[in-house]
Write a structure and sequence with these properties.
Number of domains of chain A: 1
Helix content of chain B: 25-40%
Structural class of chain B: alpha/beta
Shape of chain A: globular
Strand order of the largest sheet of chain B: 10-7-6-20-31
Strand content of chain B: 15-25%
Structural class of chain A: alpha/beta
CATH class of chain A: Alpha Beta
Mean pLDDT of chain B: 95
Number of domains of chain B: 4
Oligomer: heterodimer
CATH superfamily of chain A: Lumazine/riboflavin synthase
Distance between the termini of chain B: 26 Å
Strand content of chain A: 15-25%
CATH superfamily of the largest domain in chain B: FAD/NAD(P)-binding domain
Largest sheet of chain A: 4 strands, parallel
CATH class of the largest domain in chain B: Alpha Beta
Low-confidence stretches of chain B: none
């Protein structure tokens, strides 16, 4: 398992977290290649089925990144994301997906360092957890 | 029709190519589904790069274009333009993959970076084929502009917009416009006086028929979108009828109150005056002068005040030569004195107050937390004194609604409060001053009429004689990881200005010491000014002062002189702290109201640090001046003019194209459950009773996707972020 590299799908809101990822780049803050970003306009638009689909496609982890509460570009989309994530976590259990693989984080546009830290932490955590059931099946062929 | 995709990966000079093997990516993508041409190029954003796309669209009959380069936040519009010129709908045809900020700049290993770039490129190629034609709607622009903040930035922007013939609403929180600049004495490096160059601007703002000034007012909220905002502004009552007031200031002269007697809206004051029988000599002066005859006592015996008849005017306290009268509540606490904000708290003001003689609008305010007449109907000295009969205690706050097409935030900064830095003895020593206090001290309209005088150690409100030695401490709270990492940019220069003013006003034998980390004299004429001040005999000590100690009447400033590598302790009579420029305490609230992002330093974040310095993440909202970061007057004025130009370009054009990336609800799928209506933060969704379905008003929708993320039937979706598009990108990312 030492060569296992987790696949992480990140849904980042355009205004805070995606901008933070741009800032991490501009500031040359390197982080593991495992994290791959899909841009959405707001964390509140992340449909639960995107997350489920990511896991069913073999993702080892899914990260939703939004603005800090109160800082949402669309007033409160991030709070809707938080509510949805709470319910989705219940559903994930029913699918046999460990809820520790599913993260919601607030990362401000100015906080490239936080993005780097979360990318590192999540990759390390998932490395320790090993592949998800779907990914394990994919590896086994 | 089968899809024909062109794929392009940019070298970005070496920015991408140094980590990502771009040729390898281009070769691999040539084999991806539907890709008919795959190229790498040195600079895709250059004219030849864009022409390459346009040429290929025609030559290869391309239907879609994917460019892997920098962040879409940087160049998405550039390449969409190229597709449009090539004859394709830019929203249908184009997708951008970020392989610079998200790959080459953050991945250390070349193999991993190349692999990640390929995965993201495949995801983009998978997504692009699901995109649809979209047409950005065009709206008329309301040609009025809103400016928040009437400091030098707000005033300059207002004048520029107004002189182009457009209407400006200038909202200022304080009773007068002017801002911090008008509190200053001289301005560096030219030494022209701030009032001499600032007050003509204030007068122009006050007189310009295109500028509507809303002073003593706050923005409550804003709705709408670029070109069509509705703003609600709360005008606080001044308790002065502005149509009658002549600005004579008689009310402020007769007003006896200089304490907050009615804190937090208390109608009955918790404070009362009392006479210390130990100190009172029974001179009877207070008893004779008391307008309410509330003081009784025999000659040469201690007097007493009857709290039930006393109206708390405080005349007795002002008259008493023995300092025997004090004001306290039941627990013996004194009320908060009304400190003059204009004079940086050096002196007190009255409940009826006019900030300074040149205030615009030239009208006083009455402080409802201090005024006796307002709360109890007694005193009424101002009412009697006002010949214009302008005092009106019945005024209520008023909410006005404004229609504007663009906004400028010019809300300025706060000077740091050095009280928590106990080592600098700011609270303990009256002659340790902040820079703003010194500006007022040196200003002709200040409490000493411009004489630089020390404060009496026993009575800080009293000024005595000029200091014989002064220390100026740079970088208080700036360039200090305990407070602010940033440089406040103005302190070196105003510190030199202070040094010059002290030498000029207190005599050239006055010793002036500057304790600095580095001298940053970067502007036009700044270095020359530094040399001039040095030649005037000002001592420059390279080392940040660590401590100010009291020693008798003197202050001892301790610092390391890093040029001679020794600790120095220098006795001085006055010390000036050059405090950091901080974000205003309500900046976060303003940011939320206007949907503007805040940077790591706590100031408003501009759209791009170099190329979009006055735009924000909210379209149609611009920033100018120190609310964006510390800056001096020339930079502030330049930025204000830039922000005014942004507003003018909207107003002059009269039309604005807005993003078509908004929600739509498929009428064939919607079941009319109406959940989306409750979720929409903008009230953009309404229920059509006839069709029993929900419908989106696309002019009001901003495309957040709160509805799309939740819609149980999948009828609501955000155009350009549909399920098919996002899931295709996800699939492309996972199965490669």
């Amino acid at each position: 398992m030492s060569e296992f590299e987790p696949k992480i799908v990140a849904f980042f809101c355009n205004w805070c977290t995606f901008t933070a990822a741009d800032l991490a780049g501009t500031s040359r803050l390197s982080y593991p290649h495992n994290l791959k970003i899909i841009r959405v306009m707001c964390s509140g638009m992340v449909d639960p089925k995107y997350v489920l689909k990511a896991f069913l496609n073999g993702a080892d982890g899914v990260l939703i990144g939004g603005c800090w509460p109160g800082d949402c570009h669309y007033i409160n989309g991030n709070l809707k994301a938080r509510r949805r994530v709470a319910m989705l976590t219940e559903v994930l259990r029913a699918y046999g997906i460990d809820e520790q693989r599913f993260w919601l984080r607030w990362i401000a546009a100015s906080d490239g360092n936080m993005l780097q830290k979360i990318a590192k932490d999540m990759t390390e955590k998932l490395r320790a957890m090993g592949p998800s059931a779907v990914h394990a099946a994919q590896i086994a062929g | 029709m089968s899809e024909r995709i062109g794929f392009y990966i940019c070298h970005c000079g070496v920015n991408i190519a140094y980590r990502v093997r771009v040729k390898e990516v281009a070769e691999a993508m040539a084999l991806a589904p539907n890709v008919v041409v795959s190229r790498d190029y040195l600079f895709m954003c250059s004219d030849p790069g864009q022409e390459l796309i346009e040429k290929d669209i025609k030559e290869y009959d391309l239907t879609r274009v994917v460019v892997a380069s920098c962040s879409p936040r940087m160049h998405e519009k550039t390449f969409q333009g190229a597709c449009k010129r090539g004859g394709l709908n830019p929203y249908r045809a184009f997708h951008m993959v970020c392989v610079r900020e998200h790959v080459s700049w953050v991945t250390e290993n070349e193999d991993e970076a190349t692999k990640k770039a390929m995965i993201l490129a495949r995801a983009g190629i998978a997504r692009v084929v699901h995109q649809h034609d979209l047409f950005p709607p065009t709206f008329d622009v309301c040609s009025n502009s809103l400016i928040v903040g009437g400091g030098i930035a707000g005033m300059q922007a207002a004048l520029d917009i107004a002189s182009a013939g457009f209407k400006v609403y200038l909202v200022e929180k304080a009773p007068t416009i002017g801002g911090h600049m008008l509190q200053f004495d001289k301005t560096f490096p030219t030494l022209d006086c701030a009032a001499c160059i600032g007050t003509p601007k204030m007068v122009s703002v006050g007189q310009n028929k295109n500028i509507e000034l809303l002073s003593y007012s706050d923005v409550l909220d804003i709705s709408g979108y670029i070109g069509n905002f509705t703003v609600r502004v709360k005008k606080r009552p001044r308790y002065i009828d502005m149509n009658k007031c002549t600005g004579c200031g008689d009310c402020a002269t007769v007003c006896p109150v200089s304490y907050k007697l009615f804190p937090a809206g208390a109608k009955v004051t918790p404070y009362h005056y009392e006479i210390d029988p130990e100190k009172c000599i029974g001179c009877t002066l207070c008893a004779r002068k008391c307008p309410e005859k509330a003081i009784t006592g025999e000659k040469k015996k201690a007097h007493v005040i009857d709290a039930s008849t006393c109206i708390r005017c405080g005349l007795c306290q002002t008259l008493c030569k023995k300092d025997a009268i004090r004001i306290v509540d039941e627990e013996g606490n004194a009320p908060q004195p009304l400190l003059s904000t204009w004079d940086a708290g050096l002196v007190t003001r009255h409940a009826a107050n006019i900030a300074f003689p040149q205030a615009i609008p030239q009208a006083p305010t009455i402080d409802p937390e201090a005024c006796i007449g307002f709360n109890t109907g007694k005193c009424m000295k101002c009412v009697a004194a006002c010949k214009a009969e302008a005092i009106d205690f019945s005024q209520k706050e008023e909410i006005v609604e404004l229609n504007v097409g663009s906004c400028i935030l010019a809300t300025g900064y706060n000077p740091l409060n050095p009280s928590p830095m106990k080592e600098l003895s700011y609270d303990a020593c009256p002659n340790v001053l902040t820079n703003l206090e010194f500006e007022r001290l040196s200003n002709a309209t200040g409490p000493t009429s411009g004489k630089i005088l020390k404060r009496d150690l026993n009575n800080p409100k009293k000024f005595t004689e000029p200091p014989k030695s002064v220390a100026i401490l740079h970088c208080i709270g700036s360039r200090d990881i305990r407070y602010h990492e940033y440089c406040s940019r103005t302190c070196c220069m105003y510190a030199l200005k202070f040094a010059h003013l002290i030498k000029d006003k207190c005599g050239h034998d006055t010793e002036v010491y500057n304790f600095y980390i580095d001298m940053r004299c970067f502007g036009k004429g700044y270095e020359e000014f530094y040399k001039r001040v040095q030649s005037e005999g000002v001592r420059m000590i390279r080392g940040k002062a660590s401590e100010i100690k009291k020693s008798g009447d003197m202050l001892i400033v301790r610092a390391e002189d890093t040029l001679s590598a020794r600790i120095v302790e220098i006795p001085v009579e006055m010390a000036i702290l050059c405090t950091a420029m901080e974000p205003r305490e309500d900046l976060g609230q303003v940011a939320r109201t206007f949907g503007v992002t805040v940077g790591g330093d706590g100031f408003f974040l501009e759209e791009h640090p170099k190329l979009e310095p006055v735009s924000t993440s909210s379209s149609g909202v611009f920033i100018a001046g120190a609310c964006q970061g510390p800056k001096d007057i020339p930079d502030t004025v330049a930025q204000a003019k830039a922000a005014a130009a942004e507003c003018l370009s909207l107003s002059a054009c009269g039309k604005v194209e807005v993003s078509p990336e908004v929600s739509v609800i498929d009428p064939d799928i919607c079941v009319g459950c109406q959940i989306c209506i409750g979720l929409c933060p903008y009230g953009a969704i309404t229920f059509n009773e006839l069709k029993k379905i929900s419908e989106v008003n696309s002019a009001v929708c901003k495309g957040c996707g709160s509805c799309a993320g939740h819609c149980p039937s999948g009828a609501a979706k955000v155009q350009h972020f549909t399920d098919k598009q996002v899931l295709a990108e996800l699939d492309g990312m996972m199965f490669n």
